[in-house]
Write a structure and sequence with these properties.
Number of domains: 2
Strand content: 15-25%
CATH superfamily of the largest domain: Lactate dehydrogenase/glycoside hydrolase, family 4, C-terminal
Structural class: alpha/beta
Strand order of the largest sheet: 3-2-1-4-5-6
Largest sheet: 6 strands, parallel
Bound molecules: nicotinamide-adenine-dinucleotide, (2S)-2-hydroxybutanedioic acid
Shape: globular
Order of helices and strands: EHEHEHEHEHEHEEEEEHHHEEEH
């Protein structure tokens, strides 16, 4: 058995936390022989609920869980962590766009960026789930610099990828595992571009007869549809996607996966200095992501990438104003 790693979940008393903790504790993310010390952070108001969550983790008797650090103190929560799921923040309600959460949530990520720099393992891998995820990741990275490189910050678009892969598989009468290279470009928002023009079906190029607006909108608005139906934002599927994302980051990929990562301005005309979702591959030894090169894009796709990139620039301006 390896020595334990420290894994932080923020917002641990919330909905996503409740679905994510079992995936981490049971070994589905970091491996069946990787012990974990689970750090759980929430706000003071939720201390009682957090205590109940700890009781349940203990009652699960997970063999891989070496200990639990449950706290409402940021310094303690971020101390020496190797991986972080930054979930804790306000979810949107019906009728809101994710960027409407910016003013409320971005300050959390400023504070947690500083806490990462001050207290965490410098090699920590940070996945931002809390919305607006791309811009929150950018703010956390800004305040964690220079101790923690911006390449250690990623934002979650895996839920969008899973949604798109599932819909695409159903359309083609295939199993979801037979589908690959479904890409999410840009922002985790209603401007994101779910792109199946390069998708593979059973390892072969899937038939493609133009971008399907109905499909694109279904994926762009899926989060809102879940909120309308559940009166709560997605949690089970969000936790599964967070686990998939971190699993692939930690263990390496065999296929393209979509992640929000920093754009250096040189790939696919995505603006420089925003966290933009690209198809990436991850090296299992170094745990470093690399943007897939030379993905063909038609004019429709290029326009859609421009639109979602412009939105990320607007969000960045707003977020910087809110945090300065
Ligand atoms: P929730 O309200 O059920 O839980 C959020 C928890 O975060 C609460 O317990 C709250 O007390 C806690 N919290 C608030 N501020 C905190 C802070 N400063 N430090 C630590 N904890 C804090 O919400 P949820 O349904 O779990 O959603 C959490 C976030 O994830 C929302 O912003 C939601 O929009 C987002 N989300 C993102 C995706 C994605 O695909 N990227 C998918 C689903 C949800
Ligand atoms: C989702 O995509 O389900 C989440 O980002 C929650 C939301 O606000 O849509």
């Amino acid at each position: 058995m390896s020595s334990p790693i420290r894994v932080l979940i923020t917002g641990a008393a919330g909905q996503i936390g409740y679905s994510l903790i079992p995936l981490v504790a049971s070994g589905q993310v970091f491996g069946a022989d990787q012990p974990v010390i689970i750090h759980l952070l929430d706000i003071e108001f939720m201390a009682g609920v957090l205590n109940g969550v700890v009781m349940e983790i203990n009652d699960c008797a997970y063999p891989l869980v070496k200990s639990i650090v449950a706290t409402t103190n940021e310094a303690e929560g971020f101390k020496d962590i190797d991986a972080a799921f930054l979930v804790g923040s306000m979810p949107r309600r019906e009728g809101m766009e994710r960027k409407d959460l910016l003013a409320a949530n971005v300050k959390i990520f400023k504070s947690q960026g500083k806490a990462l720099a001050d207290h965490s393992n410098p090699n920590v891998k940070v996945l931002v789930v809390g919305n607006p995820a791309n811009t929150n990741a950018l703010i956390a990275a800004k305040y964690a610099a220079p101790k923690i490189p911006i390449t250690s910050f990623t934002a979650m678009t895996r839920l969008d990828q899973n949604r798109a892969a599932n819909q695409f598989a159903a359309k083609h009468g295939a199993a979801v595992k037979e589908v690959s290279r479904v890409i999410i470009w840009g922002n985790h928002s209603s401007t994101q571009f779910p792109d199946v023009s390069n998708a593979l079906l059973r390892g072969e190029k899937a038939p493609f007869d133009g971008h399907d607006d109905a499909f694109i909108q279904l994926i762009q608005k899926r989060g809102a549809a879940v909120i309308a139906a559940r009166k709560l934002s997605s949690a089970m599927s969000a936790a599964k996607a967070a686990a998939d994302h971190m699993h692939d980051w930690w263990n390496g990929t065999t296929e393209w996966v979509s992640m929000g990562v920093v754009s250096d301005g040189n790939k696919y005309n995505a603006p420089e200095g925003v966290i933009f979702s690209f198809p990436v591959t991850i090296d299992s030894k170094t745990k470093e992501w690399k943007i897939v090169d030379d993905v063909p894009l038609d004019d429709v796709a290029k326009q859609r990438l421009k639109l979602t990139g412009d939105e990320l620039l607007e969000e960045r301006t707003e977020a910087l104003a809110a945090t300065n």
